[in-house]
Amino acid sequence: MRVADFDLDGVTPLPRSRVLELDNQASAFNAMLIGLRAFSTYIPRSLVAKLVRTGEIGIAEPREAVVTVMFTDIVGFTTLSEQMDAAAAARLLNHHFAILCGAVDAHGGTVDKFLGDGMLAFFGAPDRLKGHAAAAVRAAAAIREELDKDNLEAAGEGRPPLHVRIGIHTGSVIVGNIGASDRVNYTIVGDTVNISQRLQELGKLLAPDTATAIAIPARLFRGSTKSSKRSRRASTGCAGAAKRRKSFSFAKSQRQHRPVWTFATPKQARAMPLPCR
Q1: Complete domains list, the chain, with CATH
Q2: What are the backbone angles phi and psi of residue 256, rounded to the nearest 5°?
């Protein structure tokens, strides 16, 4: 069952046998295990497990679906990385992505890919997750909590603190296996992905000094956090988009680096230029 669920860490290689047939089977199993572990390094294990669990024929074929997309980015990482050697920069990124992936997996999301110092994830595929918008918001809040803790630990360990921007949007996408015949990714494409990236960029403009800013359409935020207490923070101007936007934060958070939940409409987000990387 562990192999079927792609839980390979707890699988022990089979011992050799004096019986030729058993020895051949053990060798074949061990070779398969080595291959699967190498394979799992380059794809999300949780994604493979979801695809297997659904049991649906053709589940990975491209289809149109409504999902919630999350786009993250580290503020100023390019400048920061120029002050570090390659190994140290890679260790910092790997540590950061481990935090993000843990939160996404814990709330039923799928990590699509890493884009430099950013991450693209989505909720609602391949499994048809109910309440995927709320799950994405909870995952973003969990990321904020974990990054707050990690930044405190970083101060004591001599690591630089990281400021992160997160954009979240729900909409229609094409999801499934996309790529060349010999190289395929289970991924998403569509305007919803672009909007989530622009929302993430919007967080940088509206809350440049905040440790974790989460930009999200107001209707999506209200629909996914009806029971959360909110307090108004500010109305801020932004060149190149609408003149005024509302920024909110959870009333329960009184920390210095509390998150900013920035409200924007998809139309406003489309007015934001995509960043040049």
Answers
A1: 1-42 (no CATH), 61-270 (3.30.70.1230)
A2: -60, -40
Q: What 3-state DSSP class applies to 205? A: helix
Name the residue with tokens 């990054």: 147
Choose among 73, 93, 64: nearest CA to 199: 73
Residue with tokens 């609408």: 242
Write down the pTM of the prediction. 0.74
Q: Report how far residue 85's alpha carbon sits from residue 90's, in angstroms, rounded to the nearest whole number.
A: 9
Distance CA 69, CA 67 (A): 6
Most confident of 135-149, 210-224, 225-239: 135-149
151-187 as b/e, with b when 16 or more CB fall inside 10 Å? beebeeeeeeebbbbbbbbbbebebbeeeeeeeeebb
- Which amino acid is it at 236? T
66-123 pLDDT, tens digit each: 999 999 999 999 999 999 999 999 999 999 999 999 999 999 999 999 999 999 999 9
Residue-level pLDDT at 97: 97
Query: Which residues does 33 contact at the CB level (< 8 Å), separation at least 6?
Result: 3, 8, 11, 13
